[in-house]
């Protein structure tokens, strides 16, 4: 698979990457030049445990810097991951390809003008909660995640500094069926962790909770919304396109192959 193209709006990419870091904060963030090394011992999320290069021209001593970073990942009990964005130096990609690293999980970052899109309905159907514990319980249930991750996920959510709306749709008998987290960072609003429980999909719940989160953000003065979705999730991509979201850029992960 070819690498992410470099003919994109790099200032926009830099800004969305920065708000993305604040919207999903890692426990430990260290810098090696412009490389950000993100590690979170208690949570396995790839975004919380990866190297992200923030300057395409920062390509000195790549091999040595990767080895140094790998030791930090090993100390945290994590495999080394590199997150490729349009800001990644081409020589870093060339080195990983040459050493047999594997590229996987391409993700599409999408944006929309909140003032231009039409949101279904005209009221705030679901008000956000500020109860982190309740939200985390619902998130783990809806995603089908290991309940043992509750303390780590609660730490991540509690660590988000910008104003955050925690959205949960519940049914009286079956409990939480959809969740979303909306982080308003000045004029940008990020939709994180949106999910519908597996047995309640194809019923419009994704659109319902996304609309509630976007309307909340717009009422608070956000002008642009952004979210990220795995490139192979055609149903979600169709939903987001229907609402008016368009692709801004893509990112992907690299891991050491069996022979690397």
UniProtKB/TrEMBL annotation:
This is GNAT family N-acetyltransferase. GO terms for molecular function: acyltransferase activity, transferring groups other than amino-acyl groups. Keywords: Acyltransferase, Transferase. Residues 122-260 form the N-acetyltransferase domain. The lineage of its organism: Bacteria, Pseudomonadati, Pseudomonadota, Alphaproteobacteria, Hyphomicrobiales. PANTHER family: AMINOALKYLPHOSPHONATE N-ACETYLTRANSFERASE-RELATED-RELATED. PROSITE patterns: GNAT. Transmembrane segments: none annotated.
């Amino acid at each position: 698979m070819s690498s992410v193209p470099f003919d994109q709006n790099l200032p926009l990419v830099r800004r969305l990457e920065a708000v993305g870091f604040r919207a999903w904060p890692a426990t430990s963030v260290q810098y090696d030049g412009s490389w950000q090394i993100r590690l979170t011992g208690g949570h396995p999320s790839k975004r919380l445990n990866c190297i992200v290069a923030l300057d395409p021209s920062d390509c000195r001593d790549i091999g040595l810097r990767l080895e140094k970073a790998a030791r930090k990942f090993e100390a945290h009990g994590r495999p080394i991951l590199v997150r490729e964005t349009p800001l990644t130096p081409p020589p870093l990609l060339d080195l990983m390809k040459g050493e047999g690293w594997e590229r996987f999980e391409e993700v599409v970052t999408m944006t929309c003008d909140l003032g231009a899109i039409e949101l279904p309905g005209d009221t705030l159907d679901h008000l956000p909660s500020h109860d982190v514990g309740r939200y985390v319980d619902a998130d783990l249930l809806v995603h089908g995640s290991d309940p043992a991750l509750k303390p780590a996920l609660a730490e991540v959510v509690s660590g988000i500094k910008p104003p955050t709306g925690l959205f949960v749709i519940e049914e009286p008998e079956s409990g939480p069926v959809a969740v979303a987290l909306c982080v308003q960072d000045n004029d940008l609003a990020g939709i994180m962790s949106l999910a519908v429980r597996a047995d309640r999909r194809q019923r419009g719940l994704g659109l319902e909770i996304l609309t509630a989160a976007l309307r909340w953000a717009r009422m608070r003065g956000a002008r642009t919304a952004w979210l990220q979705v795995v490139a192979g999730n055609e149903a979600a991509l169709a939903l987001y396109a229907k609402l008016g979201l368009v692709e801004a850029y893509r990112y992907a992960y690299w891991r050491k192959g069996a022979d690397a």
